[in-house]
Specification:
This protein is mostly beta strands. It contains three helices and 34 strands. The chain is globular, with a radius of gyration of 20 Å.
């Protein structure tokens, strides 16, 4: 168990993202007090709390399964997909202390005080969990997810404030950090690549004046580091040198969410969904939704692009061509919230929605788009739902409640 100085700043990107969904800052802070192992309500039936598994998956047609287990966590989430991870037999939700629970039983395996910085993602790569340092000392640390033991650390330097990991590949960890002025203020920021073996800085590139270190979503594909930001920039850099390959101004980017498939980056921009070549930024294909509707967050899962729109139409699309595989109105028919994150196990696509009451975790037939069931813990918590999977179970985080569902 590691000990560090507690502290952190909420990501303005995440706050604005939820505020854009109709939440106030007061709602964001509601329900964050208290952390105890107890029994929660799960979709209208009793849910096993503490370390006791429940009775499994007996249910009628169209009825959500009962959780295998439910835990109350220290989660501090803002709706980003990288705030819940399942890896190496544990499931981890961003929080303080950062706690890892056994995927099968829900028992706590380890905890790390000040392990996760609010607003900074948890990234998994090369069998390592990468976190911004809770000590605010300019470090980025790597941990063994199974044990919580620190296995790697890099220090960007005293001239930089709180580097946050943004993406990882086989060789490097990519971070973004504020550049400190002499008076302690910051007007610029830097993107850097850290060697994932030695921790040494491979390259560092200062971004343009006026850009922000918040609102960053990033992914790596081969020689291309692609990211979006609050200023509606879509940018690609060379992973070997840090050199900017190209950048586009986008109209709308759904708070920066995008998907990457092979040599394409796929970006929702209001009524239009566009795919750009990573190598030169040229448009490969585009798709439009109905008038007065907008595309939501996309995801490429097992070679298929899934994306919903504000009219609750869900599409499965060939990501390389933009050709539609199927289109489903099942969510609108049942008045279910639109998914904003997806995982897949077998032939079932699981989606996590933004807000409660008509949302939760939806199970969708991956071949037809038909809705199988919706799981909601009926807590009334207004935080966004998050999902992750280990291939055997689907983990659903809602506020401070973490549920394990049979896949």
């Amino acid at each position: 168990m590691g000990i560090g100085t507690s502290g952190g700043r909420s990501s303005r990107r995440r706050v604005l993202r939820l505020a854009g969904g109709g939440l106030t800052l007061a709602v964001l802070t509601a329900g964050t007090a208290g952390c105890r192992e107890d029994v929660a309500d799960g979709g209208g039936s009793e849910v096993a709390g503490d370390d006791k598994p429940s009775g499994g998956d007996a249910r009628g047609a169209g009825q959500a399964p009962e959780p295998l287990w439910t835990k109350t966590t220290s989660a501090q989430t803002y709706g980003d997909n990288d705030e819940l991870v399942a890896v190496r037999g544990v499931v981890i939700a961003s929080g303080d202390p950062l706690a890892a629970f056994d995927a099968a039983t829900g028992k706590e395996r380890w905890a790390l005080e000040s392990g996760a910085v609010p607003g900074a993602p948890m990234l998994v790569g090369n069998g390592t969990l990468y976190l911004a340092s809770g000590k605010y000392d300019g470090s980025v640390a790597g941990y063994d997810p199974a044990s919580g033991r620190e296995t790697w650390r890099s220090h960007l330097g005293k001239g930089y404030r709180q580097p946050k990991p943004m993406a990882v590949d086989e060789k490097q960890v990519y971070v973004i950090a504020e550049i400190l002025e002499d008076d302690g203020s910051s007007r610029t920021n830097v993107i850097a690549a850290l060697n994932s073996s030695t921790g040494k800085v491979a390259w560092s590139e200062q971004r343009d004046l006026g850009t922000m270190e918040m609102g960053i979503h990033a992914a790596v594909k081969g020689r291309h580091l692609v990211y979006t930001d609050f200023k509606k920039n879509l940018t690609v850099r060379d992973t070997a040198t840090g050199t900017q390959v190209w950048t586009h101004k986008t109209t709308k980017t759904n708070y920066g969410f995008f998907a990457v498939h092979e040599d394409l980056v796929i970006v929702p921009q209001g009524q239009t969904l566009q795919a750009f070549n990573l190598s030169d930024g040229t448009e490969k294909w585009s798709m439009k939704t109905e008038r007065f509707t907008t595309f939501k967050e996309p995801a490429v899962v097992e070679g298929v692009l899934y994306i919903a729109d504000s009219d609750r139409t869900l599409r499965a699309v060939e990501p390389g061509t933009g050709k539609e595989i199927w289109q489903s109105k099942a969510l609108a028919k049942d008045e279910v919230q639109t998914p904003r994150q997806y995982v897949k196990v077998g032939g079932v696509l699981y989606g996590a929605t933004s807000l409660d009451e008509r949302g939760g975790v939806v199970a969708i037939d991956a071949k037809t788009g038909e809705l199988r069931w919706t799981f909601n813990d009926k807590s009334g918590d207004f935080h966004a739902w998050l999902v992750a999977t280990d291939g055997k179970r689907v983990f659903a985080l809602h506020g401070k409640k973490l549920h394990a569902l049979p896949a």
